[in-house]
Design goal:
Layout: H1 12-24, H2 29-42, H3 47-54, H4 58-71, H5 90-100, H6 116-123, H7 135-144, H8 163-176, E1 181-191, E2 219-227, E3 232-238, H9 243-256, E4 263-267, H10 276-284, E5 287-291, H11 303-314, H12 322-338, H13 343-359, E6 363-364, E7 367-368
Helix pairs in contact: 1-2, 1-11, 2-3, 2-4, 2-11, 3-4, 9-10, 11-12
């Protein structure tokens, strides 16, 4: 059986960028859908699940994953344009782009950023490689290669000393025991307010939603659980995050697999997820808590499924109260689970994985693994 197609391990910057595109949406539907494919794959979702999630062909998902593994985030913006032959050689263009994206101070220049005029002048004086290019041609080249003038941003590197160990463990349980892996996380706060979104409408006549100024309903937090093997997303709204709500969710997860074999739960490092009572209960009930590294919540499989949940239930909405908002969330979850992958496909995959483990003599939960008819 061939190895499943999956993205390589993301860097912190790549994971945070993909999360940003999926959470905030994008003006480009191609960029948004490709980011969702990559984030879902990084979270351990398999190609058929991702194809169903973004409503694309499985071959398209595989092509995007292979493109990312080859050239990184540049695959979010495919180059589907023609044009006349370029006058600069390919290696010259690469050198121009490399220079433009390098801080001038590192090249011995007394300023912190390039302007087109300064960059043109510098390229003409590089020792051993003189490139003559006009400002307009340079601007077009930078735009064609996706280099634009932007504000500087900051990011958080994961300081977790066990980053690689945690990621290895998450990948291990996703590959070996997908039917017993659950992803848990919260998002919010969810307030009662008009939320902008997008819709199909006559040109220049979008739907209008009333604005609200007085927020008297408080907030809620959505506690979600995604079953990797069953491709099912469940959740409930709570007034606040807390260890009690986390423990209740873990007990529900344990009840979903009452056979006593180990259960694996992927979750982030929120303090409400790892209290002494939770760890004690998890150890007693054979529930392994697989924590994502610090600042690397993109490794949680549920993250990719939160994007559509926001887009189709919260964006472009005007809920009068939390009861109506919760009903809308649950209605979407029912629709989403009813339209997930066909159950026969899931059963066939589970049977095939069980057969492979049985041939290799792998034991599960202390007992030899058997294949259900």
């Amino acid at each position: 059986m061939a190895e499943p197609v999956r993205v390589r391990r993301l860097t912190d910057q790549e994971g945070q960028k993909l999360q940003q595109v999926v959470r905030r949406g994008s003006t480009s539907s191609v960029r948004y859908r490709r980011a969702m494919m990559l984030l879902a794959s990084a979270g351990g979702n398999r190609v058929p699940v991702i194809a169903q999630l973004v409503q694309a062909h499985e071959d398209t998902v595989r092509d995007v994953i292979h493109a990312f593994n080859e050239k990184g985030l540049a695959c979010l913006d495919p180059r589907w344009a023609g044009g006349r032959p370029r006058r600069l050689k390919s290696d010259d263009e690469d050198f121009v782009i490399q220079t433009a994206t390098t801080r001038p101070v590192k090249l011995g220049q007394p300023f912190t950023r390039w302007s087109l005029r300064k960059l043109v002048a510098y390229l003409r004086t590089v020792h051993g490689r003189m490139i003559r290019i006009g400002r307009e041609a340079l601007r077009c080249l930078l735009a064609r290669r996706g280099v634009t003038f932007q504000r500087t941003k900051t990011w958080k590197e994961s300081p977790d000393p066990e980053r690689e160990t945690k990621l290895d463990r998450i990948e291990h349980v996703l590959d070996r025991f997908p039917d017993r892996v659950f992803a848990f996380d919260e998002f919010g706060p969810l307030g009662i307010r008009t939320t902008g979104g997008s819709c199909w409408a006559e040109q220049t006549r979008p739907d209008r939603l009333p604005a609200t100024y007085h927020r008297t309903h408080g907030v809620r937090y959505f506690h979600g659980c995604y079953s990797v093997g069953d491709d099912r997303l469940q959740g409930v709204n709570r007034r606040k995050k807390g260890a009690g709500n986390t423990l209740a969710a873990l007990k529900s997860i344990r009840a979903a697999r009452p056979d006593g074999a180990p259960v694996y739960v992927i979750l982030d490092n929120l303090s409400a997820h790892k209290g002494a009572d939770i760890r004690r209960w998890a150890k007693k009930n054979r529930v392994e808590l697989c924590f994502t590294p610090t600042y690397a919540s993109w490794a949680n499989a549920i993250e990719a499924h939160f994007g559509p949940l926001r887009q189709f239930t919260l964006a472009n909405s005007h809920h009068p109260n939390h009861t109506v908002q919760t009903r809308a969330l649950h209605a979407y979850l029912r629709w989403r689970n009813d339209n997930a992958r066909h159950r026969d496909v899931l059963a066939a995959e589970r049977k095939e994985r069980a057969r492979i483990r049985s041939e290799k003599g792998i034991r599960w939960g202390g007992r030899p693994l058997t294949i259900a008819a």
